[in-house]
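quick one, 152 residues, struct below
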Amino acid sequence: MTEAVVMRVAVADIEASPDLPALLAEYAAESANDEIGPATPQIATYRGMEAAGVMQAFAAVVDGQLVGFLFLLTPVLPHFGQKVGVTESYFVAAAHRSTGAGLKLLAAAESAAKEAGAAGILVSAPSGGRLERVMPGLGYRETNRVFFKGLK
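---
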């Protein structure tokens, strides 16, 4: 299998990819939270955050096909007064995980967060999922647990 190429891209580039609908469907099937509802990416919101300089998009491509993405937020956490990188969405299609796409996306996000002056980076992973098992081996440590309660 061909190795993945990862690059920083505009949100519009990801939005325009003919591969995006299938990738989003797989992402939703693997990472969905039924209490929140179906995934309905808010492209205008992503574009606004990108324009404000608080979000960067990264794409993983194999043989011209979009196989993964990562959206990195870089807000200042008001309580700490420090900028922190946060992965808002991070996904690689299962068939392409052996290409190194996931590791390359994460490395690109780490580099961008560092360049933006972030003190660190937070990565959210579905409980019991593969990403949760991989992160400690990449130098990440569990610092918090996120809990959800549906209100509808």
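The CA atoms of residues 46 and 66 lie 18 Å apart.
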